Amino acid sequence: NKRKHSDYLSEQLLTQAKVNEDLRYKDQKTQDSLKGYKGDLANAQSKQKALQDQLQAANSKVAHLTKQLRDMRGSAHKDFQDVQQALNKVKNIATSKAAYKDKYQQEYNAHIVTQENIKDLQVQLQRAQALALKPARRARAGLSPPDSSNSNDDIPPPAVSRRRQRSTQPPVGAQSDNDDYDHRRHPRPKKPEPESFSSNSTTSADYLKWKLAIADWFTYYPYEFASEAMKLSYIRQKTKDQAFGCLQHGYLEPGAEFVHSDEVWSILDSVY
Q1: Rounded to whole angstroms, how far apart are CA atoms 159 and 2?
Q2: CB of 172 within 8 A of CB of 183?
Q3: Burial degree of 254 (CB within 10 A; 0-12, 13-18, 19+)
Q4: What residues contact residue 177 under an 8 Å CB cut-off, 6+ apart?
Q5: Cα distance between residue 80 and residue 74, in whole Å
Q6: 225 secondary structure, DSSP code
Q7: Structural domain for 224, as ranges
Q8: Domain assignment present for 242
Q9: What is the rounded CA–CA span in Å between residue 93 and residue 87?
Q10: 25 lies in a domain?
């Protein structure tokens, strides 16, 4: 019985030893596996940190590029606005230039018409002066005026109507061979003289009314204002304050003096 019991214990011991050996093997294998896992974990953690660093760098780069893009868009928008403003300015200059060119052409055409009218008036003036001087020449020569039935150019006799007599009288400003023309011998009806133009709080209608009054005054006294110098002098007398300020360079600046009254009207027309 003891032997059997001893054999049984021996078998149990061998079995337990085998079990222990298996357990040690498994433990060693488990430790070896854990070492591999630990190495993989450290490697994974290292890779994770590297990836996190790369991600942070990428985020910083994205933020930098976003800022550059935003700045570039803002600069491009400003450049576009500058270009648009420059284009608008060029268009406005072109429009103003075209308007000025058209205005200049109109003024030039009006100037040509005025020159033609002046030539016609000068011819009429010469004819009127010649007609007015014929009675004086005949009077000095001791000749009586011819009968109106024989001549259409001479002054009619006193029996003719006063209307025809007025048509043959010498014009205002014309001179005889001996003395100056006397206004008292042929008085004109009184005409109100144009008022001065200052342009203070004025309107375009006020300016046109004043301009027409000046033109009518020149027409009413054509021979007193036959020269441009007299017209320019009279316009200067009738312009005050702001209106004269627009013209003073043509009156006061040496070398830039006005030569023709159309220059004055061109400036005033453009202002008012």
Answers
A1: 198
A2: yes
A3: exposed
A4: 133, 136, 137, 140
A5: 10
A6: T
A7: 200-272
A8: yes
A9: 10
A10: no
> Is 52 a domain residue?
no
The Cα 83–Cα 74 span in angstroms is: 14
Domain count, the chain: 1
Here the tokens at position 231 are 């017209």
Distance CA 156, CA 145 (A): 7
| Helix 261-271 vs helix 204-220: crossing angle, to nearest 10 | 160
Using CA atoms, how far apart are residues 262 and 252, in angstroms rounded to an integer?
18
| CA 55 – CA 222 distance, rounded (Å) | 97
96 found inside a domain: no
For residues 224 and 172, what is the distance between their CA atoms, to the nearest angstrom?
A: 7
* CB 176, CB 133: distance < 8 Å: yes
Q: How far is CA 126 from the centre of its chain?
A: 47
Provide the pLDDT confidence category of residue 155 given band limits of 50, 70 and 90: very low
Residues of the chain above pLDDT 90, percent? 14
Between the alpha carbon of residue 215 and those of residues 5, 123, 147, 234, the distances in Å are 159, 20, 39, 11
d(CA 257, CA 128): 32
At 172 the three-state DSSP class reads coil
Count of H-run helices and E-run strands, the chain: 7, 0
Q: Which two tokens stand for residue 170?
A: 């010498």
pTM over 0.90: no
Matching residue, tokens 């600069």: 75
C-alpha torsion sign, points 168, 173, 175, 180: positive
Least confident piece of the model among 49-53, 105-109, 132-136, 176-180: 176-180
| Separation between Cα atoms, residue 123 and residue 120, nearest integer Å | 5
Q: Which two tokens stand for residue 188?
A: 């004109």
Token pair listed for 209:
């009314």
Per-residue pLDDT at 226: 92
